[in-house]
Amino acid sequence: MTIAIFLGALLAAMAVGVPIAFSLLLSGAALMWHLDMFDAQILAQNVIEGANSFPLLAVPFFMLAGEIMNAGGLSRRIVVFAMTMVGHVRGGLGYVAIMAAVIMAALSGSAVADAAALSALLLPMMVRAGHNKARSAGLLASASIIAPIIPPSIGFVIFGVAANVSISKLFLAGIAPGVLLGMALCFTWWWVARREAVTPPQRKPAAEVVAALKDAVFALGLPIIVVVGLKFGVFTPTEAAVVAAVYALLISVFVYRELKLNQLYGLFLAAAKTTAVIMFLVAAAMVSAWLITVAQLPAQLVALLEPLLEHPRLLMAAIMLLVIVVGTAMDMTPTILILTPVLMPIVKAAGIDPVYFGVLFIMNNAIGLITPPVGTVLNTVAGVGKVSMDDVTKGVWPFMLAQFALMFLMVLFPQLVIWPARWLAG
Asked: Which of 151, 167, 239, 386 is in Cβ range 3.0-4.6 Å of 235 for a Cys bridge?
């Protein structure tokens, strides 16, 4: 009955168009009323405490770093560098998109920011070269969702706070799966584009490759600084976010000189607006998380799933299927905030490594950004690239299925995540 009231209130509010943050507050109030403990002061106190978290300071700084990166020329230089490296091979522009997405993922941590930058820079070039527009848009969308997996990742920050899991360990554990996602996309692009009659450009001379590398070296240096700093304990993930934002600002203003001081207000405002949405979602979700614990919903679910606790792989597969279904209707951040407090007790009871679970959970939520009908990244690519939503959806299917296949391969073989994570953390 308790689960029915919570889910019923949440889904009913969302069905009539209430924003998700307010829907979470309404479902929390309904649960408080059902538990006969309704108190507006407790509700307000939990909202405030929900956002009162030092690690969450990483969110605005990573958002700001992404805004500066796109406006300051870092994204463009990465694309040019990737073009000189792999643009000459058959289907080269697709590999350029994937390579650029992997590098940019290590700069911004935001799938939407990367989708906007890649669509604006590469989609017109791919269409002019003769590639199918829908397929190209689908590739760019699926490549963009690598951003929440390779550090720095806003998704890992939110999950780490909600699940009380080390964000530094999540960051390091996300590197190998993110690279594997890029490799899966390369294979899929080769498969779907092999029949296209597109003549690749000539191989760039060595001098041009070196020039592109020199031009992009400062942009390429940021992910190295972040990963090395986290591995050796030079700074925390929150401090890494500040380093990323300040570094991107200094490089954009004083080295590349493409960012003018009068543009900063707009960039700060854009980052602040996005941060406000995320932080309000976090604050509202913490109310529900507290009430879910008080109502002992996790204990009820653990008892319900007790037959699966002795079979971790089967349990993980069932959880991943649940997240896939939820991801088709809900965006990444609310899905993390709603499901994490419910699933973590089950994961711990089954003896599953919380960091391993967190990586697959975030990967699943990231792929949810390109699953219709909601698909935030699909909408971004359609809007920026001036492509119909139907065309982007058709083009993304082969790439999305390849990413899901890789995710379930990691369910069957956890070592694909655990071994590289231990090596990097050690």
From this structure: 239
Secondary structure (DSSP) of 4-17: HHHHHHHHHHHHTT
DSSP letter (8 states) at residue 255: I
- For residues 424 and 426, give the distance between their C-alpha atoms in angstroms, rounded to a whole number: 5
Instruction: Quote the CA–CA distance of 6 and 292 in Å, as a whole number.
Output: 9
Per-residue pLDDT of the chain (426 residues; tens, 9 = 90+): 666 777 777 778 777 877 777 887 887 778 777 777 777 777 777 777 767 777 778 888 888 888 888 788 887 888 888 888 877 777 788 888 898 888 888 777 778 888 888 888 888 888 888 888 999 999 999 999 998 999 888 889 999 988 989 998 999 999 999 999 999 999 999 998 877 767 667 788 888 888 988 888 888 888 888 878 877 778 888 888 888 889 889 999 998 888 888 998 999 998 888 888 888 887 877 777 777 767 766 666 667 777 778 889 999 999 999 899 888 777 788 888 888 888 888 898 889 999 999 999 999 999 999 987 667 888 889 888 888 888 999 999 999 999 999 999 999 999 999 999 888 766
